[in-house]
Amino acid sequence: MTISHQAPATLRAISPYLPGKPITELAREIGLPVERIVKLASNENPRGMSPLARVAVEHAIAGIARYPDQFDLVKALSDRLGVGEDQIVLGNGSNDVLDLVARVFLAPGRSSVFSEHAFAVYSLATQSTGAEGIVAPATHYGHDLSAMRAALRPDTRLVWIANPNNPTGTYLPSAQIRAFLETVPDDVAVVLDEAYNEYLPPRVESVAWCRDFPNLIITRTFSKIYGLAGLRVGYAVTSPEVADLMNRVRQPFNVNNLALAAATAALDDHVFVAESYRLNQEGMERMVAGVKHLGLEHIPSHGNFISIKVRNALIVNEKLLKQGIIVRPIAGYGLPHHLRVTIGLPSENERFLTALEGAL
Ligand SMILES: *Cc1c(COP(=O)(O)O)cnc(C)c1O
């Protein structure tokens, strides 16, 4: 028996997460300077970070010798969302928070349910606990909540919903999610992943549901509209009892000083968020028009990205890479004919559309 066989079989079966290709890696491969490369592969904010967050990071550098204190960010989130400080759990990215939920509720002999084409982390987080992932069929690329409800087994302890979902951008109206929560047994946890929440038009605030559903865990991130993907900070809003469990498995210092300072400042940068929102709306309109002009289909998206159907996604992707454009093939999500493209700056969107036309 080799050392690698000592890991549980459930863990050895995991296929690793495939991140978007880093700009520096493509630059090395094709010999282009990094400034010439357009990365539309990881749903980052193309405007960079909030200027208020930048200033906060610069100030926070002086305190780096000290262990972090989560107080200010937890307080700011609790004030903003109108929930108790004991209902917020911070994570090293919301990915960390998703993992905490899995560790709290899953174990070998248990299962979780998620949709076909759902965000890859649900499957990874489930498998890493030795639990089984159950995939419910999608409709029109989106989550089918009745199929998800029907997929629950007696051993199911967790359901994952992404709204909007990545990589499809599909969205479920608040009323549907609320109705779904009513049908889920109260001893099954439900994660509502709202990584793209800030890109949605104003609507019913899901956070208020935490009062009625102690089994609900809402997750959000500073990686997308707030422009802090590289700092790694996200959070969960849930009932005090679930937050307490998550905090038991959470590493005490899981969010670093710079990330805490940046996120606290970014939360108050309403101008930056509003401008990023508008840029995304305009960019989305331009992308949709450009894609239609090329005679291509796309999945209507509520996020800061769009999945486009092309005849040979891998070849088109290779051709785009040769022109210095990084997008995301999503065959691993059961969508072998689609490429997921982040909405960029206007100039980046134009470069992409021109390159795409050439690559078809
Ligand atoms: C990007 C994303 C996340 C979170 O990413 P973090 O950087 O770890 O906060 C979570 N869920 C979905 C659906 C995402 O697309």
In short:
The chain is an alpha/beta fold. It has helices at 9-12, 23-30, 51-60, 71-81, 94-105, 121-128, 145-151, 174-183, 240-249, 257-267, 270-293, 313-322, 346-359, and strands at 38-39, 88-91, 111-115, 132-136, 156-162, 189-193, 216-221, 234-238, 298-299, 305-309, 325-326, 328-330, 335-342.
Tell me the structural class: alpha/beta
Largest sheet descriptor = 7 strands, mixed
Please report the number of helical segments: 13
Total strand count, please? Answer: 13
CATH architecture of the largest domain: 3-Layer(aba) Sandwich
Provide the list of bound ligands, each named once: pyridoxal-5'-phosphate
Main β-sheet, spatial strand arrangement: 2-8-7-6-5-3-4
Helix coverage percent of residues? 25-40%
How are helices and strands ordered from N to C? HHEHHEHEHEHEHEEEHHHEEHEEEH
- For CATH, the homologous superfamily of the largest domain is named as Type I PLP-dependent aspartate aminotransferase-like (Major domain)
Cα-to-Cα separation, first versus last residue: 49 Å
Strand content: 15-25%
Tell me what you see in this structure.
The chain has 360 residues and is an alpha/beta fold. It folds into two domains: 3-48 and 270-359, Alpha-Beta Complex (Aspartate Aminotransferase, domain 1), CATH 3.90.1150.10; 51-266, Type I PLP-dependent aspartate aminotransferase-like (Major domain) (Aspartate Aminotransferase, domain 2, 3-Layer(aba) Sandwich), CATH 3.40.640.10. 39% of the residues lie in helices and 16% in strands. It contains 13 helices and 13 strands. The strands form three sheets. The chain has a seven-stranded mixed β-sheet with strand order 2-8-7-6-5-3-4, sandwiched between helices. A four-stranded antiparallel β-sheet has the order 9-10-13-12, with helices on one face. The chain has a two-stranded parallel ribbon with strand order 1-11. A hairpin with a 4-residue loop joins strand 12 and strand 13. Helix 5 packs across helix 6 (121-128), helix 5 (94-105) crosses helix 9 and helix 11 (270-293) runs parallel beside helix 13 (346-359). The protein is globular, with a radius of gyration of 20 Å. The termini are far apart. Pyridoxal-5'-phosphate (PLP) binds next to helix 5.
